[in-house]
């Protein structure tokens, strides 16, 4: 018996959006209107690349960014949940699929000593250039019309599961923990014995509810959470089955 836990990052593991949290490093902790208004739907990664150029142009260095990012709060109960998963790694494989970036997630997980809990992190690759500017790229190319152009989480999850099967690893159940609109696409991949855990009051919960009202419900079970302790209770019960 082995379970796969799939986590989103922003508003799921951490209680904020890591990409908007970094704005605290900007002069007066805000971005100029022209830059803010340059965002086009579906092109968030390109927008963030411009934000990082602005921070670099204003002399914001790597160590200041790192200090700021490691103050981002974890969601209620998440520290307990990740500690619990870390103690039971023989039962749980654990991955992150996120529209944040490798640098932010790495900083945050390592500062809290949670990086060993996760087997793999799938997110937009980021790095500091030779001039000290943070740069970010799209995770991959895909053909999914429902997802932002840089990341289809369903494609990521399917490729991961296929790769695991080739290694002889299959999962008794997949537990998908997320909050955003871009988490619906991977949830649609889940089967009857899997479970989606949308965060209460967030877009994913609303979209799943709308599908049920439209008589086109998701195939998997759905359990809403407001604190990560709710998730831990479910996993504890799962282990006793």
UniProtKB/TrEMBL annotation:
<dbReference type="GO" id="GO:0016791">
    <property type="term" value="F:phosphatase activity"/>
</dbReference>
<dbReference type="InterPro" id="IPR036412">
    <property type="entry name" value="HAD-like_sf"/>
</dbReference>
<dbReference type="InterPro" id="IPR016965">
    <property type="entry name" value="Pase_PHOSPHO-typ"/>
</dbReference>
<keyword id="KW-0479">Metal-binding</keyword>
<dbReference type="InterPro" id="IPR023214">
    <property type="entry name" value="HAD_sf"/>
</dbReference>
<feature type="binding site">
    <location>
        <position position="179"/>
    </location>
    <ligand>
        <name>Mg(2+)</name>
    </ligand>
</feature>
<dbReference type="GO" id="GO:0046872">
    <property type="term" value="F:metal ion binding"/>
</dbReference>
<dbReference type="InterPro" id="IPR006384">
    <property type="entry name" value="HAD_hydro_PyrdxlP_Pase-like"/>
</dbReference>
<comment type="similarity">
    <text>Belongs to the HAD-like hydrolase superfamily. PHOSPHO family.</text>
</comment>
<dbReference type="Pfam" id="PF06888">
    <property type="entry name" value="Put_Phosphatase"/>
</dbReference>
<keyword id="KW-0460">Magnesium</keyword>
<feature type="active site" description="Proton donor">
    <location>
        <position position="10"/>
    </location>
</feature>
<feature type="binding site">
    <location>
        <position position="99"/>
    </location>
    <ligand>
        <name>substrate</name>
    </ligand>
</feature>
<feature type="active site" description="Nucleophile">
    <location>
        <position position="8"/>
    </location>
</feature>
<keyword id="KW-0378">Hydrolase</keyword>
<protein>
    <submittedName>
        <fullName>PHOP2 phosphatase</fullName>
    </submittedName>
</protein>
<feature type="binding site">
    <location>
        <position position="8"/>
    </location>
    <ligand>
        <name>Mg(2+)</name>
    </ligand>
</feature>
<feature type="binding site">
    <location>
        <position position="19"/>
    </location>
    <ligand>
        <name>substrate</name>
    </ligand>
</feature>
<feature type="binding site">
    <location>
        <position position="10"/>
    </location>
    <ligand>
        <name>Mg(2+)</name>
    </ligand>
</feature>
